[in-house]
């Protein structure tokens, strides 16, 4: 009897999970792109998605596709989940999950600081469908528990939270959600599967924007939800097929190619962010810096327990008016790009004014607004530290800050 193969580690899974058995003549390279809209045989499957079975063959690329399937197998392996489902964008993934798990009369508890698009979906669109939403500081476990209702069906957190890098304790929130017969979904885009594995900490779903670190090159949009097999199958049959946010095979191929370097990239992102955080923390124009890997982060102890890689995203605030400094940086930076998004190979920096995001996306006032301002003051500089030589990044910051 042959010995059982040892379980592969993350760096190996990013390259080999889901690969076909080796055969003579097959290339040792990235998988081919199956860029066809349909696969056909008269007896393959019924015309309606209601006929879709777990073992159904590929039939129509909005439903499934070989390239997407490999990406999904690889993502599930990285997260330690039973199954994964890919989408055209991270927002498509979150929207599909929310609309699958929530209906009229249900209640969502949401991190009050999270990706702006998710916050706007929750505040501006879900209530039109009869879904109640409470946005709370999910770093405060008592606030999460107090927000739970008998009709709460889903708790959705983002950790670290975009843009201030505030953390939420996944295991403890999972216990609160499950005690109230609700499910927990975690957006772990910033930490990546190499930093945090929410399913192992008690989450029911983990969500990623594949556009960011997992794809890594800024050349493809994508999203994914990972969880239990039966839940992901229901999500495919319902929200993916009928809402139509399917990922293109070519984008899936680009993301698979990017995933192959995820492990070394995240090591470099983390190492560079550590250097940049130390520089900014001692700069006379900088008021505060937030990066989970630093002892200066107010939740560093939780980060050490919950994260294995601290990622390359940090945030900082200015001692003087942030808007003026943002304009100065936009004009002077040469290595770092003044641009939105995060998780690319190249360094990106962008200023997010506090009053703008409180009003337009987060809808925060009272204690929630006060707590956000404690971190962000008049505005926060979100800095996605890239893979350039750290000395060059720091030199660029030094000349641009003046």
Automatic annotation (TrEMBL):
Gene3D superfamilies in alphabetical order: Aspartate Aminotransferase, domain 1, Type I PLP-dependent aspartate aminotransferase-like (Major domain)
The record's PROSITE patterns line, in alphabetical order, gives:
CYS_MET_METAB_PP (PS00868)
Cofactor(s) required for function per UniProt: pyridoxal 5'-phosphate
Using the record's annotations, give every residue carrying the modification N6-(pyridoxal phosphate)lysine: 212
Sample GO molecular function, one term: pyridoxal phosphate binding
Offer a single GO CC term for the protein: cytoplasm
Q: Does the keyword Nucleotide-binding apply?
A: no
Write down the InterPro entries for this protein, in alphabetical order: Cys/Met-Metab_PyrdxlP-dep_enz (IPR000277), Cys_met_metab_PP (IPR054542), PyrdxlP-dep_Trfase (IPR015424), PyrdxlP-dep_Trfase_major (IPR015421), PyrdxlP-dep_Trfase_small (IPR015422)
Annotated GO biological process: transsulfuration
Q: Which domain of life is it from?
A: Bacteria
Is Nucleus included in the keywords of this UniProt record?
no
Which controlled-vocabulary keywords does the entry list? Plasmid, Pyridoxal phosphate
Q: What PANTHER family does UniProt report for this protein, alphabetically? A: CYSTATHIONINE GAMMA-LYASE, TRANS-SULFURATION ENZYME FAMILY MEMBER
Q: What family name appears in the similarity comment?
A: Belongs to the trans-sulfuration enzymes family.
> By what name is this protein known?
Cystathionine gamma-synthase
Q: Which organism is it from?
A: Microvirga ossetica
């Amino acid at each position: 009897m042959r010995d059982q193969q040892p379980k592969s580690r993350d760096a190996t899974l990013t390259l080999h999970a889901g690969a076909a058995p080796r055969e003579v003549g097959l290339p040792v390279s990235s998988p081919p792109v199956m860029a066809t809209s349909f696969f056909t045989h008269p007896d393959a499957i019924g015309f309606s998605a209601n006929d879709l079975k777990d073992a159904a063959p590929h039939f129509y690329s909005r439903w499934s596709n070989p390239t997407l399937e490999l990406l999904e197998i690889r993502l599930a392996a990285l997260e330690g989940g039973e199954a994964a489902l890919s989408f055209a964008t991270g927002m498509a993934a979150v929207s599909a999950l929310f609309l699958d798990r929530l209906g009229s009369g249900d209640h969502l508890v949401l991190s009050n600081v999270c990706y702006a698009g998710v916050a706007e979906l929750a505040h501006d669109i879900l209530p039109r469908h009869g879904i109640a939403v409470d946005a709370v500081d999910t770093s405060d476990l008592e606030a999460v528990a107090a927000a739970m209702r008998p009709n709460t069906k889903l708790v959705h957190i983002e950790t670290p939270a975009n843009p201030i890098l505030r953390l939420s304790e996944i295991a403890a929130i999972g216990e609160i959600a499950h005690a109230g017969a609700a499910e927990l979904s975690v957006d772990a885009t910033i930490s990546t599967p190499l930093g945090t594995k929410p399913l192992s900490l008690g989450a029911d779903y983990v969500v990623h924007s594949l556009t960011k670190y997992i794809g890594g090159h800024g050349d493809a949009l994508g999203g994914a939800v990972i969880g239990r097999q039966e839940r992901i199958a229901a999500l495919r049959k319902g929200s993916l097929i009928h809402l139509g946010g399917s990922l293109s095979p070519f984008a899936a191929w680009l993301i698979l190619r990017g995933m192959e370097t995820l492990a070394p990239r995240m090591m470099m992102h983390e190492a560079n962010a550590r250097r940049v955080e130390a520089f900014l923390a001692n700069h006379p124009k900088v008021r505060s810096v937030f990066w989970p890997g630093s002892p200066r982060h107010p939740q560093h102890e939780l980060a050490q327990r919950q994260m294995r890689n601290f990622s390359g995203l940090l945030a900082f605030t200015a001692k003087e008016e942030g808007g003026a400094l943002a304009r100065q940086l936009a004009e002077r930076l040469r290595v770092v790009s003044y641009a939105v998004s995060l998780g690319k190979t190249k360094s990106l920096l962008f200023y997010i004014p506090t009053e703008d995001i409180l009003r337009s996306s987060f809808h925060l006032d009272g204690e929630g607004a006060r707590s956000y301002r404690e971190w962000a003051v008049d505005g926060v500089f979100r800095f996605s530290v890239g893979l350039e030589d750290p000395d060059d990044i720091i030199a660029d910051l030094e000349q641009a800050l003046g």
